[in-house]
Automatic annotation (TrEMBL):
Origin organism lineage: Bacteria, Bacillati, Bacillota, Bacilli, Lactobacillales
Protein name: Endoribonuclease YbeY
Recorded GO MF terms: metalloendopeptidase activity; RNA endonuclease activity; zinc ion binding
Domain of life: Bacteria
Listed PROSITE patterns: UPF0054
Necessary cofactors: Zn(2+)
HAMAP family per the UniProt record, alphabetical: Endoribonucl_YbeY
Gene Ontology annotations of biological process type: proteolysis; rRNA processing
Length: 163
């Protein structure tokens, strides 16, 4: 899996970015995600994530992570149409991008302090949490929450990023 990283804050170390990529690749293998998938992470401050949260979720408050799952449009063809190989390859490229995450480093620090664990653990938690969202997991109902939260804890523990 390819992960594109952008740090709009100028405060996330190269080491932490590299560790996050390593964690997400581990998570991708853990859920058996095909290797050709791609995603993006942008580290932001509270004011920027508040703007994103307002625009995409209708909530005018800063949050810890916003996950934007990419949902490609379904293209159908008449059965008589034989798609050229070049077009097949081009369409497959669109299928590789799964989504993007925005993580507030200020919220991550605040939550790490509140929960009594490391900033690194919180940043890893937020990355895995968002990653699961862009792969179809959710926690809007109790049953789904139980599944998603158990899986994210299982991934973090197996990776060695414990509380």
């Amino acid at each position: 899996m390819y992960v594109e990283m952008t740090d709009n804050t100028g405060q996330v170390s190269q080491e932490m970015q590299a560790e996050t990529v390593k964690l997400l690749k581990f998570a991708a293998e853990f859920i058996h995600l095909p290797e050709h998938k791609e995603m993006a992470i942008t580290y932001v401050l509270n004011d920027e994530i508040q703007d994103i949260n307002r625009e995409y979720r209708g909530k005018d408050v800063p949050t810890d992570v916003v996950s934007l799952e990419y949902e490609p449009e379904t293209i159908t063809f008449d059965d008589a149409f034989e798609m050229p190989e070049a077009l097949q390859a081009e369409l497959a490229e669109f299928d590789s991008f799964i989504g993007e995450l925005y993580i507030s480093i200020e919220k991550a620090q605040e939550q790490a302090d509140n929960y009594g664990h490391s900033y690194e653990r919180e940043m890893g938690f937020l990355a895995v949490h968002g990653f699961l969202h862009i792969n179809g997991y959710d926690h809007m109902v109790a049953e789904d929450e139980k599944v998603m939260f158990a899986l994210q804890e299982e991934i973090l523990t197996a990776y060695g990023l414990t509380r």
